[in-house]
Amino acid sequence: MEEKKLFELVKEDLRKIEQELINEVSERNEFLHDPAMHLLKAGGKRLRPAFALLAAKLGDYDFEKVKPLAVALELIHMATLVHDDVVDNSMLRRGLPTVKANWGNKMSIHIGDRIFAKSLLLIDACKNNYVAKVLAEVSVKMTAGEIQQLNGAKNISTSIKEYLIKIKRKTALLLSASCELGGIMANVSPRVVYALKQYGLYVGMAFQIVDDILDFTADEKVLGKPVGSDLRQGLITLPVLLALKRDKKHELWRELQNLPQNNANIEQIIKEIKNLGGISEAYAWAKNYIEKAISAFDLVPKSPVKDTFLEIAQFIVQRNY
Amino acid sequence: MEEKKLFELVKEDLRKIEQELINEVSERNEFLHDPAMHLLKAGGKRLRPAFALLAAKLGDYDFEKVKPLAVALELIHMATLVHDDVVDNSMLRRGLPTVKANWGNKMSIHIGDRIFAKSLLLIDACKNNYVAKVLAEVSVKMTAGEIQQLNGAKNISTSIKEYLIKIKRKTALLLSASCELGGIMANVSPRVVYALKQYGLYVGMAFQIVDDILDFTADEKVLGKPVGSDLRQGLITLPVLLALKRDKKHELWRELQNLPQNNANIEQIIKEIKNLGGISEAYAWAKNYIEKAISAFDLVPKSPVKDTFLEIAQFIVQRNY
C-alpha cells in the first residue's frame, strides 16, 4: 500500500497541520525565515502529527483540540533534526543540503532552539498537564539518546542492547508519545491509551531499524544521501552489530577498525555485512517489533482506524525509502 | 553593600538551591558529567533563583513550592549561556574556559539541549499553568534576542531602540519572570505580581547595560575576559551607540568599520568611546531604569523584603564586576 493512502482518514486535517507548521515556522525576519522554511520543507513524512491525529480518531475526535499537540510534536522532531545535523556533521538530508550545510552551525543552533521553544507554547495550548509532563520526559530522554550517539559514535563494541536503548530514546519514545497523547487529547479509555503507547514504542523501534537498514540497501537517489552514510560517519547500527556477531574470523571487525578514516573500501564492507546476514537478521528484528506493535492493539475493538494502525505497522517494514 | 549580604534573607535556601542544581546537572555518564558540572561551577550569581526566592518572601513563603521554579530558572539561563558561547565564539567566561573552548561545539549543543529539557521537568513540577505559559513565552523571545545578536553582530547602525529590544529579550524578560513567578508561587496579590514583573524587567535592563559598560571599564582580572571583548567580537553595545550619537566628526564610526578584523587599536577606540561620553551616558540610562524599578515597588507595603529589593536595585548600578 502506498504511504499516502495509509493516512487517508486524516488526510484533510494533515493538510491543515502543514499550514499550521508553516505559520509557526515562518519568521518576519528574512534572515531567519529562509533557513527555518528550508528545514520545514526538507522534512518528510509528518509521521508524528499523523499518528497523533489517527490516535485521536479512536476517541472523541476534535481537530482543534489535537491540533496544537500534532504541531508541537513535529516541531520537537524538527528541532532535534537540526541540532543532530550539527553533531553528526550531516550535509544532506533527503537529498537537500541541511541547514548546517547552507547556513552553518550557529544558525542551526538558533533555529533548533527557537523551534523547540515554540513547541512549548503549543504544549501549553494543549492545556493538559499530562501532555506537558510526558513531552518534558521524552525531551530529556531524547537528549540522552543524542549524547549516547556522540559518545558511542566510533565505538564498534557498542552492544546490541546499547543500540536498542539509543534508538528507543532517539526515535521510539517520541513516536510512542505521539500515539499516546493523541489518544489522551480525545479522551480514549486508559486501555486504549496503553495500547497506543506500546504500539508507538514498538513501531518506533522497527521504524528506526528499517531506517538503519535502508542506509545500506536503498537507492542513493531515493535515500537522498550516499549509501552507507552512517558507517562513513562511524555510526554502528544494528545490521553491522548483527553481522559482527557472525563474523567468526574477525574480518569485518578488522576492516571496521579503519573507518571512518578510510572510506575507500566501504562498498566491500557493505557487501560483507550483507553476506554475514546482517541485513536479513536486522529485518527479522524489525518484524518482531512490528508483531509486538500489532499485538498491543489486540484489546482495541475493530474499526477502520484500528485497521489503519495495523496497515501502517506492516508498511513500516515494507517501505524502501 | 556587598552582594552576599543582599541575599541574606534567602541565604540558607539559596544554598539548598545550589545543591539541587548539582543534583540536576550531574550525570552518571562521565563523558557528560564533566562539561555539565564545569558549566554549573563557572556560572555566577544565581540571580534568577535569588529573585524568585525573594519574591516568594513577599507572600506565603514555602521553599518546597518555589524550589522547582528557582532551579528551572537557573537551568534555562545556563542552557542559553552554553549555546550563546558557541554562537559568539566565546572562549572565556568569568575567567574560565567555556564548555565550547574545552569540549567543543557539539558537546555545547548537547549540554544546552539537555539542561533546557531538564528545566521542563521542573517547570512541570511547579504544577502551575501560568508558570509554564510565561516561561514558554520568555523562551521564545529569548531565542529572538539571540538571533538578533547574530544578525546585528557586525552592524554599527544598530539603533538604540534595537539594542534595547535585544537586551530585553536576552536578559530582562527572564529576570522579570523570575520575580513575577516567584511571587506567583507564593500567592502574592495581583498588585504585587505586577510590581515584581515590572521591577524585574527594569532591573534586568539596567543589569545588562551595566554588564555592557563593565566590558569596557572593569579590571580584566575581575571580568575574567579581555577588556573590550564585545567590541572585539563586533558586538555594538549601548556605550558605543551613545558615543556614536556624539561622534560628529565620524571618527569613531570610521575606526569601528575595521573591527573586528583589526583589533590592534581597540584601546584607542575604547578611549574615544569614553571621551565621547559613551560610558557616563550609558550609566545614566542604567540609573534611569533602576529608578523605574524602584518606582514599580511604590505600592508594595514596606517590609524587610521590599527593602532588600530596593537595595539590590541600587547595587546593580554600583557593582564593578
List the helices and strands and how they pair.
Two copies of one chain form a homodimer.
Chain A: H1 3-6, H2 11-25, H3 30-42, H4 47-56, H5 63-87, E1 92-93, E2 96-97, H6 99-125, H7 129-152, H8 160-184, H9 190-217, H10 220-223, H11 229-232, H12 238-245, H13 251-257, H14 266-275, H15 278-296, H16 304-318
Antiparallel strand pairs in A: 1-2
Rg from alpha-carbon coordinates of chain A: 20 Å
> By CATH's scheme, which homologous superfamily of chain A applies?
Farnesyl Diphosphate Synthase
CATH class of chain A: Mainly Alpha
Number of helices of chain A: 16
Biggest interchain interface, per-side counts: A-B, 37 and 37 residues
Termini separation of chain A comes to: 13 Å
The quaternary structure here is: homodimer
Strands in their spatial order, largest beta sheet of chain A = 1-2
**CATH level-two architecture of chain A:** Orthogonal Bundle
Number of strands of chain A: 2
SSE pattern of chain A, N- to C-terminal: HHHHHEEHHHHHHHHHHH
What portion of residues of chain A belong to β-strands?
under 5%
Main beta sheet of chain A: 2 strands, antiparallel
What structural class do you assign from the helix and strand content of chain A?
mainly alpha
Number of domains of chain A: 1
Stated plainly, the CATH topology of chain A is called Farnesyl Diphosphate Synthase
